[in-house]
Fold this sequence. Notes:
- This protein has one helix and 14 strands; from the N terminus they run H-E-E-E-E-E-E-E-E-E-E-E-E-E-E.
- It is mainly beta.
- The strands form four sheets. Strands 6-5-4-1-7 form a five-stranded antiparallel β-sheet, with no helix packed on it. The protein has a five-stranded antiparallel β-sheet with strand order 13-12-11-8-14, with no helix packed on it. A two-stranded antiparallel sheet has the order 2-3.
- The relative contact order is 0.16.
Amino acid sequence: MFTRLFILFLLLAGITATARAQERETPYWATIRASVLNMRVGPSADYKIDWVYRRPGLPVKVVRLMEGWRLIEDPDGTRGWVVARLLSPDRGAIVIGDGVADLRASDSEDAELKWRVEPGVVGVLGDCDEGWCEFAVGERYGLIRETRLWGVGEP
Length: 155
């Protein structure tokens, strides 16, 4: 019995921690958690759907909070309201700019080239330092120029 109560406590604590992570000062970076996310013109399910996202992991900038809803801005600059629970505080980024971007083995243009990624590729963002960011796409990992990513720096 104690084990079941303890597991229930841990689950509830995790849900509460996720909710608290979304209750912070704006603006902040987040990623889309859901496989389908409706962006609405206002902060309620009663408002018209303006856009539907189908890209889990896509980074967004949260610019305003309102009772379980978040006003977000996507990489194209489009703004709208989404349900907060469908966002994750996990950091992600999307490759931007012209042409392919290089993922290097270390933070140097002379470092071994590991992969090339095209604009529009979404990945998991690690630490950024001196203009380079850790970036992972599936099992592929490397360092990429910070200027080639949207979702880094101060939002």
